[in-house]
Design brief:
The structure holds two protein chains of two kinds.
Chain A: E1 6-7, H1 11-16, E2 20-24, E3 27-32, H2 37-46, E4 48-52, E5 57-61, H3 66-69, E6 85-91, E7 97-106, E8 109-114, H4 119-130, E9 135-137, E10 142-147, H5 151-158, E11 170-175, E12 178-183, E13 192-197, H6 199-210, E14 215-218, H7 220-229, H8 256-261, H9 267-276, E15 280-287, E16 298-300, E17 306-316, E18 321-329, E19 338-343, E20 346-353
Parallel strand pairs in A: 1-3, 4-14
Antiparallel strand pairs in A: 2-3, 4-10, 5-8, 5-9, 6-7, 7-8, 10-13, 11-12, 12-13, 15-18, 15-20, 16-17, 16-19, 17-18, 19-20
Chain B: E1 5-6, E2 11-15, E3 22-27, H1 29-35, E4 38-42, E5 49-50, E6 55-61, E7 65-69, E8 74-79, H2 82-85, H3 89-92, E9 101-105, H4 117-127
Antiparallel strand pairs in B: 1-2, 2-3, 3-9, 4-6, 5-8, 6-7, 8-9
The chains are: A alpha+beta, B alpha+beta.
Chain lengths: ~375, ~130
């Protein structure tokens, strides 16, 4: 393992557990543990999985910067009270997606959790726009994700009160004299929590959680297959600066008030696409034979013309068949459309399907359909 | 019975007996560990002929698709049908129950160009 790779606070835990370590976003991260990625994936869907996500960037921004911050992120900070978190995008001047993130309002500032690979660029952008004195990277801080139907009971037994949080709510908790910031959220489609705390406390809590019956340590491979089943986009693959929020079917996170003020980067392009319909759309894909299709594969229509590209592809352990996401010309994005991917000289039929592939099971206040509505723009 | 032989691409070939000119082919325990959980195996059609080093099967794991190359020139006699329903057999027992194809050797002499168990062991030590 290269000397330049950073170690997360849980590094010793991963090594002790026999993790296969790989470089990821400048950190040595566990790809999977000895039981394998598929068994970890299943553990999250049926019980509880613990992920080290300390490689992600945790950045605090002063509350007084809310107005300026809204020029950088799509979040509606006026509608974000203390105790809540929102999913938001950082957009570029031409409407592309620089990063996707969670932003929460705490009493002492906003906490942004950004992708590890985008951390440095995001930090630079925030500092340039808001002033270094208003932005702070929580360097070396820990971030854990506990996900699955048993997550609430498991964490609640150690930190009473977490079960009272609803999806996208946040609160401070104390554990052994340490302040811990917890949100009810995640990247798996399951109920679960993301836990921000100092490095030593992160290791101690992770060790304790991993010893709970029904809790499995989970690595990056399972994280990817879980989010793919939930049709959650991966930054750098499904979303990137050359795709807009409208094309990515993420415009739902831009509130009516933000669309009205249009103060975020790229608002012109994005609002134009909302009005006229985008030329391309993210689509769920179901390969119709048993081999997965891979990111970068060309999608062709029934006439043989290029219809788009696979952006993420893999195997769904829950469903027992391959699933994928892709960016396709809008006229081919309707569920039921049959496309093909050429693989090893053979054509694999791929059907456009509704997403998510596996229903999301967030702990919401009111029942709300967690199926992404199909946007058919003409 | 001639012993199992190994390739630099982590395939193994095990002749089934001295008299019949047939062998089982698969990937090594090391190879399956590198691949991670295997989700699908693309098997060749029976009776297809392969030259040494040509692609005889494809293994899809959670990570990627990987080619399996024919260790020697051969004709496919049978494929391991269990792999259709249980591709993870390769993870569980790569050098036993997880065999991929049964082949007839075009030229048994080709086996001697491959590594024996000791040689493969040294090769693994060199590359890790």
């Amino acid at each position: 393992m290269s000397q330049e790779l950073s170690r997360t606070p849980l590094h010793s835990l991963h090594i002790a557990a026999g993790a296969r370590m790989v470089p990821f976003a400048g950190h040595a991260m566990p790809l999977n543990y000895p039981g394998g990625a598929i068994s970890e994936h299943r553990a999250v869907r049926s019980a509880c999985g613990l992920f080290d996500v300390s490689h992600m960037g945790q950045i605090t921004v002063g509350l007084s910067c809310a107005t300026a911050l809204e020029t950088l992120v799509t979040a509606d900070l006026g509608a974000l009270p203390a105790g809540k978190q929102a999913y938001a995008l950082m957009t570029s001047p031409w409407g592309g997606i620089l990063d996707d993130l969670m932003i929460a309002r705490w009493q002492d500032g906003f906490l942004l959790v950004v992708n590890g690979a985008c951390r440095d660029a995001d930090l630079a952008l925030l500092c340039d726009s808001l002033g270094r004195e208003n932005v702070r990277l929580l360097h070396g801080h820990g971030l854990l994700a506990l996900q699955g139907p048993l997550a609430a009971a498991t964490l609640g037994a150690i930190i009473p009160g977490v079960e009272d949080l609803y999806f996208m709510e946040t609160a401070d908790f104390a554990m052994a004299g340490e302040n811990i910031r917890i949100s009810r959220s995640g990247y798996t489609g399951e109920d679960g929590f993301e836990i921000s705390l100092a490095a030593e406390a992160a290791l101690a809590l992770a060790q304790r959680l991993s010893r709970q019956p029904g809790t499995s340590l989970c690595g990056l491979a399972a994280r990817d297959s879980l989010r793919l089943e939930a049709a959650l986009p991966l930054c750098g693959q499904d979303i990137h600066p050359r795709i807009t929020p409208v094309e990515a079917r993420l415009a739902w996170c831009i509130s009516p008030r933000r669309r009205q003020d249009a103060r975020f980067s790229g608002a012109g392009t994005i609002l134009g696409q909302l009005a006229d319909g985008p030329a391309r759309l993210m689509a769920g894909l179901r390969p119709r034979d048993r081999s997965p299709v891979r990111a970068g594969s060309t999608l062709r229509s029934s006439t043989g013309h290029v219809a788009g590209e696979v952006t993420s592809g893999g195997f769904s352990p829950t469903l027992g068949h391959p699933v994928a996401m892709g960016l396709v010309a809008a006229e081919h994005a309707t569920p039921g459309t049959l496309l093909t991917v050429r693989r090893r000289g053979r054509e694999t039929p791929v059907e456009v399907v509704r997403t998510p592939f596996v229903p999301r099971r967030y702990h919401r206040k009111q029942a709300k359909p967690d199926q992404i509505p199909v946007q058919t723009h003409r | 019975m001639p012993a199992t032989r190994y390739t630099r691409d982590h395939e193994w070939i095990r002749p089934e007996s001295d008299s019949r000119n047939t062998a089982l082919v698969g990937i090594t325990t090391h190879a399956q560990a590198e691949l991670g959980d295997i989700v699908h195996v693309e098997l060749p059609d029976p009776a297809r002929v392969f030259s040494a080093g040509s692609e005889i099967a494809v293994i899809d794991s959670v990570k990627a698709a990987s080619e399996v190359y024919a260790p020697v020139s051969c004709t496919v006699l049978a494929v391991n049908d269990k792999l259709s329903g249980t591709p993870e057999l390769i993870n569980q027992d790569a050098e036993g129950e997880g065999w991929i194809v049964r082949v007839e050797l075009a030229s048994p002499g080709e086996l001697s160009a491959l590594m024996d168990a000791d040689g493969y062991g040294k090769f693994l030590a060199d590359i890790s």
